[in-house]
User: Fold this.
Amino acid sequence: MNGKLTYNEIHRQAEIWRGATAALAAAREEHHVLLQRYQNHLWVFTGCGTSYYLAQTAAALFTGLTGLRSKAVPASEILIYPELVFNPYERTVAVAFSRSGTTTEIVRAVEKARNELGIPVLCVSCDPQSPLARAGLHTVTFPFPAEESVVMTGSFTTMLLSLMQATLQGRKMTEQAAVLDQLPDAAGAVLALADEMLPAIVAHSFNQFVFLAQGPFYGLANEAALKMNEMSLSASRSFHALEYRHGPMSTTTAETLITLLASKKGVEYELQMAADMKKLGARILLLHDSSLNCLPGEVDFDLCIPGPGGDFANALLYMPVLQLLGYYNALHCNQNPDRPNNLTAVVKLDLSAPTLSEEKSWSAVPDLHNLNPGLRTHA
Ligand code: F1P
Assistant:
């Protein structure tokens, strides 16, 4: 069967989470020291492709849990515009995500941050022996059977889970950490619901897929659009939910499927969006948890996520549904998700092009160490 590899890797993620959670629990003290050490820092999350959308999701959830400031940037921005990413007057720690740990841009970005800019880096990779894991100052590690598929699925959710668990442990948020134990069973139920519902949805032969979300779910919307693109080659776009009215909705037709990732804080606005887009002929798929008890008539398809609810749990539990939506649409479009067009599992580049030495690229900013030798800007 086409896509068997990808299907199995989407379905096995619940059990992988179980093993990761158990292994991460053993590193509780190390995570506490880590969070303490950087509790007054700006946290810059980074990655490439799926791992960049993972960084977006992790940054939003991290700030929601800790109150610490964060931002998410593609690794290429650290290579090309480091002065737009890092502020030499602000203590900073970077978090680098990579399934393979060998993507050229992310490895080079970590080397630049650490060796040229003096910024400590925490690396999260599915391969603890990878160049990325070795390039970082710190790592969060967990057992992960390597993905053979080109597209990333369980690697996204397991790296997200591992960073969130390390954060919860680090900040001794034991109540929220207990939620983690409920997620593998909830994920199993979500996958069964999605398998049952999604094939009939994609049978409508939509010619455009739009993913809308706010807050910590925006990174998921971007990843969902990428999954749909990678696996089925279909037109797919993603926006902050309320941004869609400001122009992008111009392309909405009866062949458009709009998937809304409901958030607790924004659900009233998100449901109004569903009602407005319904008037334009779009079909609406709503992902939500059991806290939403009155479904508006405008929603064509709704999938209620079992489990504890809340942003953190829902972010993890929405993702397998979005992965399967791309998978089933690929099959419907006679594409093989295991062999996505034009893609390889890892992007390797020859970045040997001459680059400005750091002194020149930072020349606009005085060297703090000369001004104030005692001020250690990043460590
Ligand atoms: C990142 C990535 C994926 C993409 C494809 C190629 O890899 O760009 O986002 O879907 O698999 O690799 P990594 O740095 O996370 O290994």
Summary: Residues 171 and 264 are 23 Å apart (CA to CA). The two ends are 51 Å apart (CA to CA).
